[in-house]
Amino acid sequence: MPATESQGLRAWLMSDAPASAWQARAQRIYLSWRVFARNPIAMTGLFIVGGLIVMAILAPWITHSSGLDPVLDERLQPWSAQHWLGTDELGRDIYDRIVWGSRITLYIVALVGIIVVPLGLLIGTLAGYMGGVVDNVLMRITDIFLAFPRLILALAFVATLGRGLENAILAIALTTWSPYARIARAEALTIRNSEFILAARVAGASTLGILLRHVVPLCASSVIVRLTLDMAGIILTAAGLGFLGLGAQPPTPEWGAMISSGRQFLLDQWWVPTVPGIAIFIVSLGFNLLGDGLRDVLDPKREGG
Amino acid sequence: MIRVDNLNIHFGQGARAFAAARDISFFVESGESFGLVGESGSGKTTVLRALAGLLDGVARVSGDMVVAGERLERRRSKSFRRQVQMVFQDPYGSLHPRHTVDQILSEPARIHRMDDIQGRVLTALEEVGLDRSFRFRFPHQISGGQRQRVAVARALITQPRIILLDEPTSALDVSVQAEVLNLLVRLRRERGLTYILVSHNLAVVSHMCNRLAVMQQGRILETLEVARLRDGTPDQAYTRALLLASQGYDRAAADSVDLLDRP
Amino acid sequence: MASSDRLLQVHNLSVSFDTPRGEVNAVRGISFDLGREKLGIVGESGSGKSQTGRAILGLTGPGSRVTADRLEFDGINLLNADQATLRRVRGARISMIMQDPKFSLNPVMSVGRQIEEAYLVHTRANRREARERTLSMLASVQIRNPERVYDAYPHEVSGGMGQRVMIAMMMIPEPDIIIADEPTSALDVTVQLQVLAILDDMVSRRGMGLMFISHDLNLVASFCDRVLVMYAGRVVEVCEASQLHHAQHPYTRGLIGCLPSVSHPHEVLAVLDRDPEWATAPSAADP
Lengths: 305, 263, 287
What we know:
Number of strands of chain B: 10
Helix content of chain B: 25-40%
Largest sheet of chain B: 6 strands, mixed
Strand order of the largest sheet of chain B: 6-7-8-3-9-10
CATH architecture of chain B: 3-Layer(aba) Sandwich
CATH topology of chain B: Rossmann fold
Number of domains of chain A: 1
Oligomer: heterotrimer
Largest sheet of chain A: none
Distance between the termini of chain B: 37 Å
Radius of gyration of chain A: 23 Å
Largest interface: B-C, 41 and 43 residues
CATH class of chain A: Mainly Alpha
Shape of chain A: flat
Number of domains of chain B: 1
Structural class of chain B: alpha/beta
CATH architecture of chain A: Orthogonal Bundle
Structural class of chain A: mainly alpha
Order of helices and strands of chain A: HHHHHHHHHHH
Shape of chain B: globular
């Protein structure tokens, strides 16, 4: 009987007295999800980002071509049943290239996140919790990175490291981590003096233990929310580097590079640069909306659920 | 059990240095319950934190502190950490907001590499009068009084001999305060614990303690038996004023307590 | 109580809040009159005592719903009065003192200026008159050096001084009713005594009505004339403050019983056994 089963599950998730650590955690996630699901804007964001992920996974099955090989007699075709979003200057199907490009976008986003979050958390929480000299040294380093405009610094890095997608990602990550360190530090500063930290110190917990078990998990949510909100900027920076020819190299269907190579056709075959532009816009918007929703759910100051 | 000699605590550096405690000396016998009483800014909590080793890197602490025969160094030993535990004022702030009661209680046991952590957690819960259904709840799912019971249970996990209590009931309603005070009294009797209780509430201190020290502006004004408090015969005028003020409003008393326009 | 002495009449007042978990009833159908007296409202957290005070001034905040058969002040129905009328009543005729002066004073404006503003908003006085009034008001709350305090900023004054400044600010328009929500809970006991003495003198000298909301039974019993004991959004008992220690209701008796006392020590404190019936029984009527 699915009805009673779902009621049983609901009761299990809403029970006041969870019987195991696993149930407590599941309840926590469920309550957060209920808050999140009530927010239509956040759900829109989740839908867009989810759609991007599905598109990336299903790419081989929902495209006709790899989007890499030129078909010169089908250059610059407008929308048609065969080419849903038209073709570009080399006759490649733009829809196929957008779909394959979603993998690159996700690749950028994931790699930047993997580098930036631990780096920012490590430096920020260490500085905030330790204070004193450690704080000063780490924060001055952070300030140096913070002082340069992101795109310019990324350009400088790429110029040094050489062009290419991986180097572009590395450059973006190196220019993005500093605000995260700042956020993590600010959070750590307030957490440092809480009584539960004092209680852990009285119990004899080591500094490393307190950092890893108490400080980092509480700082992580603000950093992750900020990262989601920043994703739009990261995607745009990646697209900007691609547009300047410093990111992904042709024929890779990176959306920024697609705009770049299509820009000369803006007047006559406007869809060639516009479609990847819209794709960038929608995905950036999706991450932004998702971040807004996550902020409401993950806010550590929010009590209850 | 506890002996503090000429304890001085300074916050800040140079011209902005500020003495939070000056020439504090007192002793606490084994199994005794000792009160530190004072108004805000008297330095009572600072003294307690100095004892617990929580002022490291925050303030300059000088003087001798001996606990259970061990002279305290700047870095507290593992055995000190096991023998001395603390209960804090704010039941909302002293429990990690994202940890379950189970995680909160097992942490001290894990740190001290104790065996049978699960059994210890269950015993501690039982001892503070919480049933097993509380084990996997988060702090936000339980009431203030229950949180304070969890904080007491956490202090008991390592089987300490000394518990430092920092205003343990001042954030609670009086009916809940009575329950927590009864719990603390029972635990001390059953386990032969030694308490140092910091409070601004003379009634709570007189209920819990044998002796107390009255602090004002970083100094101990006097140390006395609770019986003297009951008889209304403390030596210092300030203690008598505290006593008078703690008994409710009295227009005549208000005129006699002349402490207006203090800095 | 003669009807002319009834400053405020409250009949069947309820306050409820919409929360994600459904409706929460903070105050459930309570009735009382306030005359030219010190009326204590005592209860534990969640008893609805603070919301009762706020409801009178329409300060219960977003998501709240206030209903009453009658909420009348000087012939004005506070429930359906228009905003302009309410603004004239608030501050000028009914004012409120909050728990912590730190959060009630504007940090970037000198203390004297803030009191002066409170006066100017409700009168047609000019600046010079307002300043003189302010200084005399500061003097009347036992501030020895009014000129110096006039120019001080809120962070430069102590908690007790800040609360006296708040009292001066609330008193200067000469209101008929003062609602004081835990006005001395953030203060040290000796300072609390002083602040209460000032409040006491001003209220009795000017014949105001004071609604004194507090969790502290001893304080209310010794300071007020009459006491309402609230539990779970209802008034469970009304009595003369001097008779509070001979209260009838088991809740009130339980609350008194569980207080530790310096002069009457007990090995074990009495614990309050809550009877679910207290929450459902009808509110005690105003005598």
